[in-house]
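Question (not urgent): is this output format expected?
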Amino acid sequence: LDLSNCSLHSVPPGLAEATTAIVLDLTENPLTALPDASFLGFIHLQSLAVPLPLECPGGRDAWQDVTADRSSRLCHGQRNPCNSSVELAWPCPENSVCAPDGPGLIQCLCDSPFHGYKCLREGTFPMLLFGGILGTATVSLSLLLWGTQRRKAKTP
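Got this back:
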């Protein structure tokens, strides 16, 4: 994806839809900052060229090779932060596994059959119970309102 020399002052919001990009060029743009969250989900990104004043997203540890020439910085070979020897700041909780989520970013995915906050709930969501309670409450409230409000309806 070549976005070089597009007069970008910030990362375009539409970039979030290009998570399958392998090569991305942002050089020759007057970018002032490159937030790490801009590359959330870019797990396939292998080469990123940014203007020289900016650092690679995720820092040097997120890339295998960072080189700089006179006008740009090339970040090449995205590393998997889950396999790094550097200890993670926020390790994943029990019953979950670490998965890469972009340069220097991770996500914790719950192991089956766990789900919910910090993967503490086991089993599946009780759809039948939830649907039954919601349906009963909706029908009861509808009947109550129909019964109390039908006298206010005008008849032809």
